[in-house]
Design brief:
By secondary structure, the protein is mainly beta. Helices cover 0% and strands 61% of the residues.
Length: 121
């Protein structure tokens, strides 16, 4: 089985910064694309950013220029550096990964439990 664990969330003032981490563990053979998603109260879960194994990135328009996604393949970890935070960024942030397991060999999307980010105005 595979587990994804997010950390680094918390309370921050508008204009401040936070760095989120996602650590994948378990019977992992390889991880393809990874991404961060978020869900605010009363809203749908939305894409924040994705990153391929080779480092190609994609960002939602609302976070371009403020957030940076990165990963360390040898450690099965992913990060989201969030700068110039706004109240609109308040949400639960979820880690997502396309994982191929060692045994039995299978490929599936996995999700973390989420970490709360609250930006005060």
């Amino acid at each position: 089985q595979v587990q994804l664990l997010e950390s680094g969330g918390g309370l921050v003032q508008a204009g401040g910064s936070l760095r989120l981490s996602c650590a994948a563990s378990g019977s992992i053979f390889s991880i393809g694309i990874m991404g961060w998603y978020r869900q605010a109260p009363g809203k749908q879960r939305e894409l924040v950013a994705t990153i391929t194994r080779g480092g190609s990135t994609n960002y939602a328009d609302s976070v371009k220029g403020r957030f940076t996604i990165s990963r360390v393949n040898t450690e099965n970890t992913m990060y989201l550096q969030m700068n110039s935070l706004k109240s609109e960024d308040t949400a639960v942030y979820y880690c997502n990964a396309d994982v191929t397991t060692t045994w039995p060999p299978r490929r599936n999307d996995y999700w973390g439990q989420g970490t709360q980010v609250t930006v005060s105005s």
